[in-house]
Design a protein that fits this description.
alpha/beta, Nucleotidyltransferase, domain 5, 2 domains, seven-stranded mixed beta sheet, 17 helices, globular
Length: 517
């Protein structure tokens, strides 16, 4: 039975921040999950030389600017005093370094930095391979994890900057620090994204720093890691300088709660917090996530630890909207493309596209591989539908890998910008041969961050009143996450897509282990 709120007032506003590598959103939600105000700010990345890096001064500026803008919107609506709490979703595989004065030591290295592969390989060799990693932390260490950044730093960062570093922090922990002034803590979700935390205990595992060659750097990194905190422990209120800057009432300052990896936030925003529930997020990257009470039986999926205890199984593809944008170009007429593609038969008359604008390490695609077969079509509708089908095939391989790793899937939800396409959802349902639940909100990560903050706020207040803090994230999901429709597979397309998936696997040369069902 779903628990009810006892201490959070029904008029409360909860904000969810979504710090991604493409932009920053701060969205305000009421307790029914309706968005009542939104702030959206762009982000610029440093990509010269094949890297992907974020200036932390820009992150600080966006965090502060979002508070000012949100305060102004809520004040104009007469809702400023209803703003009670905030949660943060961020790309926790993005991480940076700050000194004792909270100034950047270097730019944050982003999750999609393709330069990390060789450093990850060197560190993994020092540790003794993935089997040894699993013994240490309970799951695999993937290329994008924060530990790979440290191995790169060993070769690229001057010793002086290693010693100047006060804290090594994830994207979300940095954002929370810029909002609250507390840079000393990290959530379980954040720490799990480093490859240094033991997924089973929720504690740092010092032996993972043996991926570094230099003993002095291992010791420094160990000292620079933040304290891991529980889901219900506030990071803190908005810091005093922000309260003044945004003209907030010092008696009504929102609390910021432990951050979510964007995958955790997407899982929650997709309503998939119980074992066997799966959330597919079709955004900048394309992600297949599921919840489980246990670790997967293979190392073929990334594994996270959720802030409230269970595990998150993940297959994250670099080539989501980044691939689609290459097909449709800048500022396309989405309605026209959707209509044109809907008139094209399933399978696009055997036209297919290899969608790897960026490498896809989880599938063994080590370098970009973008190719049309038999040739690039001239028709916009064919190109668009073929692109949607390629994304659906990618997602299908991720779903299959979840099942091969021991997951029993009970429900699949779909969210993200690409999920606004009715055709995409019908194609995906048909490729998977499963019904898909569509969400009212397209803002999965921001909504998920707000949902976790609501659960944490209610439990925080219960503790203050001497009550048992037993309001779960699932209870908060039932309150705020709403479904709008179910998309059923199209039986007339099913046979075409069964053949298409086999042809897709053969075309792009995906390693055999990723085609198991």
């Amino acid at each position: 039975m779903t628990a009810t709120l006892k201490h959070v007032p029904p008029t409360a506003i909860i904000t969810g921040w979504d710090f991604s590598t493409s932009g920053v959103k701060c969205l305000a939600f009421d307790l029914d999950g309706n968005m009542v105000a939104d702030v959206r700010l762009p982000t610029d990345l440093w990509t010269k030389g094949g890297v992907s890096e974020l200036n932390l001064l820009q992150l600080e500026g966006k965090a502060r600017a979002s508070v000012r803008a949100m305060a102004n919107l809520l004040r104009a609506n007469g809702r400023l005093h209803d703003w009670r709490a905030g949660g943060i979703s961020a790309t926790h595989h993005t991480a940076g370094r700050i000194d004792a004065h909270r100034n950047p030591v270097r730019r944050a290295i982003c999750w999609n930095d393709v330069s990390l592969a060789k450093y990850h390989a060197a560190g993994l060799k020092r540790l003794g391979g993935q089997q040894k990693v699993r013994e240490l932390i309970g799951g695999p260490w993937a290329i994008r994890y924060g530990l790979s950044h440290l191995v790169k730093d060993e070769r690229q960062l001057h010793e002086e900057n290693w010693r100047r570093t006060a804290k090594i922090l994830s994207h979300g922990s940095l954002a929370a620090g810029y909002l609250t002034g507390n840079f000393d803590v990290a959530s379980i979700s954040s720490a799990a994204s480093t490859g240094i935390m033991d997924l089973r205990t929720g504690q740092w595992r010092k032996e993972m720093l043996d991926a570094l060659e230099c003993p002095d750097y291992r010791d420094l990194a160990w000292q620079q890691l933040p304290r891991i905190i529980d889901q219900g422990e506030p990071v803190g209120p908005l810091q005093p300088s922000l309260v003044i800057e945004a003209h907030l009432d010092s008696a009504h300052v929102p609390l910021i709660f432990p951050t979510s990896d964007d995958q955790q936030a997407g899982l929650v925003g997709g309503g998939a917090v119980d074992a066997g529930q799966m959330a597919i997020i079709l955004g900048t990257s394309a992600v297949v996530n599921s919840s489980s009470a246990r670790l997967p039986t293979t190392d073929d999926l990334d594994v996270m630890r959720l802030n409230w205890g269970p595990y998150l199984w993940m297959r994250c593809y670099n080539n989501g909207a980044q691939f689609l944008n290459k097909i449709v170009g800048a500022d396309p007429d989405w309605r026209q493309l959707e209509g044109a593609a809907a008139s094209v038969p399933a399978g696009c008359k055997k036209t297919m596209v290899a969608p790897f604008v960026f490498p896809e390490p989880s599938l063994g695609v080590a370098k970009p591989f973008f190719r049309w077969e038999p040739k690039q079509p001239k028709d916009d509708g064919v190109r668009f539908r073929a692109a949607l089908e390629a994304l659906a095939y990618l997602i299908a391989l991720g779903v299959q890998q979840h099942e091969a790793s021991g997951q029993t899937i009970t429900r699949i939800t779909v969210s993200g910008g690409i999920a606004r396409s009715k055709l995409m959802c019908e194609i995906l349902a048909s490729v998977l041969n499963r019904p898909l639940e569509l969400l009212v909100s397209d803002e999965g990560p921001a909504l998920g961050a707000a949902v976790t903050a609501l659960a944490a706020l209610e439990n925080h207040l219960r503790k203050q009143y001497g009550a048992t803090p037993d309001f779960s994230v699932a209870d908060a999901v039932a309150k705020m996450v709403k479904f709008r429709a179910t998309v059923e597979p199209n039986p007339e397309w099913r046979a075409v897509y069964e053949k298409g998936l086999r042809k897709f696997v053969k075309m792009v040369g995906i390693k055999k282990r990723d085609t198991k069902s």
